[in-house]
Amino acid sequence: MSKRFDTNNKSREELSGSLTEFRTKLVQLEFDRADKKLKDFSQFKKIKKDVARILTRLQQDSGEQATVIK
User: Fold this and answer.
1) 38/67: higher pLDDT
2) What's the structural domain count of the chain?
3) Helix/strand/coil percent split, the chain, to 5
């Protein structure tokens, strides 16, 4: 994963599919880390950011406003 995931020009279905894929990769990375097989720990940060990008885009598309809790 050397390039940022692009959320532009993607349908809700494509974004949802990608979200599932990234979450699956994140779980696999957790298992690899537990088994001490993981060499590049920066993958966690990259995948988490991609998940956040997708969730933000899905929220924007649905027109929902985030509630700020004080």
Assistant:
1) 38
2) 1
3) 65, 0, 35
Q: How confident is the model over 16-60, as pLDDT tens digits? A: 999 999 999 999 999 999 998 988 889 999 999 999 999 999 888
The verdict on residue 70 lying in a domain is no
CA within 13 Å, CB half, 61:
15
Q: What is the spatial distance between Cα 25 and Cα 47, in angstroms, rounded to a whole number? A: 8
Residue 7 · residue 46 · CB < 8 Å: no
Please check whether residue 31 lies inside any domain of the structure.
yes
CB 29 within 8 A of CB 43: yes
Its pTM surpasses 0.90: no
Closest CA to 62 of 27, 5, 16: 16
